[in-house]
Design brief:
- By secondary structure, the chain is of the alpha/beta class.
- The chain has two domains: 1-96 and 263-350, Isopropylmalate Dehydrogenase, CATH 3.40.718; 102-253, 3-Layer(aba) Sandwich (Isopropylmalate Dehydrogenase), CATH 3.40.718.10.
- It has twelve helices and 14 strands.
- The strands form three sheets. Strands 2-1-3-12-11-4-5-10-8-9 form a ten-stranded mixed sheet, sandwiched between helices. It has a two-stranded antiparallel sheet with strand order 6-7. The protein has a two-stranded parallel sheet with strand order 13-14.
- The structure holds nicotinamide-adenine-dinucleotide.
Length: 350
Amino acid sequence: MKICVLPGDGIGPEITAEAVRVLKALDLKLELEEGLLGGCAIDAAKDPFPEATQRLAKEADAVLLGAVGGPQWDNNPRELRPERGLLRIRKDLGLFANLRPAILYPELANASTLKPEVVAGLDILIVRELTGDIYFGQPRGIEMRDGERYGFNTMHYSESEIRRILRVAFDAARKRNKKLCSVDKMNVLECTQLWRDVATETAKEYPDVALSHMLVDNAAMQLVKNPKQFDVMVTGNMFGDILSDEASMLTGSIGMLPSASLDANNKGLYEPSHGSAPDIAGKGVANPLATILSAAMMLRYTFGNEASALQIESAVKKVLAQGLRTGDIYEPGTTRVGTREMGDAVLAAL
Ligand code: NAD
C-alpha cells in the first residue's frame, strides 16, 4: 500500500504528522513517501504541483493531503497560487467522486447552531460528482446580446457520468446503513430528469440498498429540519457543492471533518475539509482529528480495510469521550490539549 503524503502549508505539516503516526501504529504494510504541494512547492520548485510530486501521486495508491495556501502567496499570478496545485492534482488523478461525511459526535452536540436533539449523533455522507455539470459545461460566458450583457452556462451530464457516481454512492451506502437519497431538480431541469432515470436504473444492481429521490430545494430544507433521516446522499456537482457545505456546518466543528475524492478505481485523495489555518499555524494547537479521520477513510475506500478504519474512528470517539479537546472544539468542563497531545491520545486509544 503506497501512500503519497503531501503535508502542504500552514497547519498542514502539524496535522498530517499526527495522521501518519496513527497509520504507522497500525500493523499494516504501508509505504509512505512525502512530497511538496501548494505554497511550499512554489517556494522550493516554483510550481505548486511540481513534476516530482506528480510522479509520486501517480505511482501511489492513495494521497494524504494536509492543506495548502497562505497569505504570502495570495498576490501571486493565478498559475503560481497554492490552490492551483490542488486543482491540478485533482484533475491529474481523475478524481470525479467527492465524499464528505458530516458526523456530529454526541459529545460535541453543543458546537452546532442547531438544537442538540436535532443533530446529536448525526452521521451522513454526501457524495458529490466533481468533474461535470454546469461548472464545466460549454457553452458558457458573458456577451453582448440585443444591446445588453447576457450571461449563460450549460448544465449537462452523460448517462455514463451519472452511472459512475451513482455506483460510488451505492457502494458507500452498502458499507453503511443501506439507504441512499438521490437529489435532483427533475421538475424543471431535463438534465436532472436523466439523473433520476439513471439512478432508478442503477438501483437494480443494488437490490440491498433502498433508493429514494428528493428535489434539491426540499433536500436543503430537510437537512436543517431533520438531518438524521439521511444516510448517504448523492447529487451533481453544483447541488453537491451547496449541500455538502450546508451539511458540514450542521456539525459546527470544521476541525473534525474528513473528505475523500476518488477515481474510477478507488484511488483517492484524502484531506480534511478545512484549510491551512494560517492564523494558528506553527502553534501546535490545530485539531488533527479531521486528518486522522481522513486516513481512516483512506483505509476504508482505497484499501478496503474496514476493520482498521473502524479502529481509528473508535479511537477518536474514545478520546472525545475522555473529554480531550483542541481549542476549536473546547468548552468549559473539558480538557484543552494541543495537536501532539491529541495525536498521543488517539494512539493510546488505538
Ligand atoms: P481555514 O479552514 O483554513 O480556517 C478557518 C478558521 O477555522 C480559522 O480560524 C482556523 O484557525 C480554523 N481552523 C481550520 N482548521 C482548523 C483545525 N484543524 N483546528 C483548529 N482550527 C481550525 O479557512 P480560511 O481561513 O478561509 O483559509 C486559510 C487558507 O487555507 C487560505 O489560503 C485558503 O485558500 C486555504 N484553503 C485551503 C483548502 C485546502 O487545502 N483544501 C481549503 C480551504 C481553504
